[in-house]
Amino acid sequence: MIRLLLAEDHHLVRGAFAALLGTEPGIEVVAETGRGDEAVRLAVELRPDVAMLDIDMPGLDGLAAAERIAETVPSCRVVIVTGYGRPGYLRRAMAAGVRGFVGKDNPAATLAQVIRQIHGGGRYIDPELAADALSMRECPLTPRELDTLRAAASGAPVSRIARELRLSEGTVRNYLSSAVTKLAVENRHTAVRRARDMGWL
Amino acid sequence: MIRLLLAEDHHLVRGAFAALLGTEPGIEVVAETGRGDEAVRLAVELRPDVAMLDIDMPGLDGLAAAERIAETVPSCRVVIVTGYGRPGYLRRAMAAGVRGFVGKDNPAATLAQVIRQIHGGGRYIDPELAADALSMRECPLTPRELDTLRAAASGAPVSRIARELRLSEGTVRNYLSSAVTKLAVENRHTAVRRARDMGWL
DNA sequence: GCCGAGCCGTGACATTTGTCAGGGTCCGGC
DNA sequence: GCCGGACCCTGACAAATGTCACGGCTCGGC
C-alpha cells in the first residue's frame, strides 16, 4: 500500500484528487492540506511514501516544500503537480530532487500511474514540459537584476525600489534596463511578466 | 438522475471532478470537455439538466459559454466553478442567468449539494464571494478607459496603443491617467492588474 | 603579477509617461 | 431652450523611466 500525502491549495480540487486516488487500489491518502508549510510538517510526522505537491500554495510554495522534504524526509518521494508549465519551475524541481513532475493537462489516469512509478523508484517528467525546459536557455539574469525585477513586480516606482534595495535610482534603472535588453522586451513591466512566465522570478 | 455536463480546462482536474461526482448517487456525468465552445455545442446536443463550467477555458470563457447556454438551452441550469474570486465575474455570471457560483476553496462536499440544489430550482452563491461582490462598487471606468487599459495590458508603450485605437498619444495618456486616479493606484501597470483582479478588464 | 571577463554601482542625458487646463459633443431634467 | 454633467479628445508642461559611458571590485587563467 502506497501511503500518500496530498497538498493542493484549492480545497475543492484537493477533495476531487482524493476521490480520484481513493478509487485506485494500492494507494491510500494518509493526509491532505492546502498549505506548503503544513505539508512539510505532515511529511515529517507521518513519513508518507509519496508526497504530491501543487506549486501554488500559501505558506510555502510547492517547490520550497519539496526542497525541505527532500532534506528532512529523504525516504519520501515527491511528485509535483502544477497547472503552470514554467520551464524554470521544472529546473528548480529537478534540483530539489523531485522524482516526478506532471502538468494538470494530462488525463486523470496518468496521475496514479506516475505515483506508482515514483514509488517503485522510477522517475516521471511530463514530456511536454520537459521539451519546453530543454529548449530553453538558462536564466541569463544576474542576482541583482532578479532582485530589482522582483521589487519591480508589484508596480512600484523606481524611487521605492531604490529605497528597498538601498541603491541609487540610477543603479536600479540600470539593472532594469539590462534585464529588459537581455529578455528582448520593451520595458520593465513586460520584462517582469516574461521572467515570471519563465519561472525565474 | 441529474444529467451533468462538465467543462474545465485542466484535464487532470476535470477527471478528478468526474471521479468525485461519479461517487454521488443521483448524478450522472453525461459529457465532459476542456473548451468553452465545445461546452455550448454539447449542451445544445445533449440537453443536460445542469452544466458545470470553469471560467478559465480556451475557445470561449465560462461566462460567455454560460450566456450562450442560457439563450439556446434555457432548460439547462448553469453553475460556475472558479478559482478566481473576482467580483466582476460574479456580477457577469448573475447577469447571464447563472444559478450557482462556487469558489474552488470550498470543501468537496459542497459541489454535489450545490448541483442538487440548482437542479431542484434553487440558487447558490458562494457566501465569501458574494460578500466581496456586494462590498464592491460597480466598475467606475468608462468604455474608452477600459479600451486603453486593455490595450495597455500587454505592456505596449503609449505610442502603440495610440496607433491601435486611432487616438493621439495625449488622449491615451489622459485615459490611462484617469483610470489610475479612479483606481487609486500609482501607475497604469498596477491599474491594469487592479482592473483585472476585479474582473473588469 | 597581471589581464580579461563578469558583476556591481553611479551620474548625466534623451525619451517616455503622467498631469493639467481646457474645448467639443451628446443627453436628460427643468 | 438651456443648463449641468458625463464622456471624448487634445496639446503643453513636469516627472518618471530608459540609455549610455564610465569606474571599482573580485575571481580564474596564464
Automatic annotation (TrEMBL), chains A, B:
<dbReference type="InterPro" id="IPR001789">
    <property type="entry name" value="Sig_transdc_resp-reg_receiver"/>
</dbReference>
<dbReference type="Pfam" id="PF00072">
    <property type="entry name" value="Response_reg"/>
</dbReference>
<keyword id="KW-0238">DNA-binding</keyword>
<dbReference type="InterPro" id="IPR039420">
    <property type="entry name" value="WalR-like"/>
</dbReference>
<feature type="domain" description="Response regulatory">
    <location>
        <begin position="3"/>
        <end position="119"/>
    </location>
</feature>
<protein>
    <submittedName>
        <fullName>Response regulator</fullName>
    </submittedName>
</protein>
<dbReference type="InterPro" id="IPR000792">
    <property type="entry name" value="Tscrpt_reg_LuxR_C"/>
</dbReference>
<keyword id="KW-0597">Phosphoprotein</keyword>
<feature type="domain" description="HTH luxR-type">
    <location>
        <begin position="134"/>
        <end position="199"/>
    </location>
</feature>
<dbReference type="Pfam" id="PF00196">
    <property type="entry name" value="GerE"/>
</dbReference>
<feature type="modified residue" description="4-aspartylphosphate">
    <location>
        <position position="54"/>
    </location>
</feature>
<dbReference type="InterPro" id="IPR016032">
    <property type="entry name" value="Sig_transdc_resp-reg_C-effctor"/>
</dbReference>
<dbReference type="InterPro" id="IPR011006">
    <property type="entry name" value="CheY-like_superfamily"/>
</dbReference>
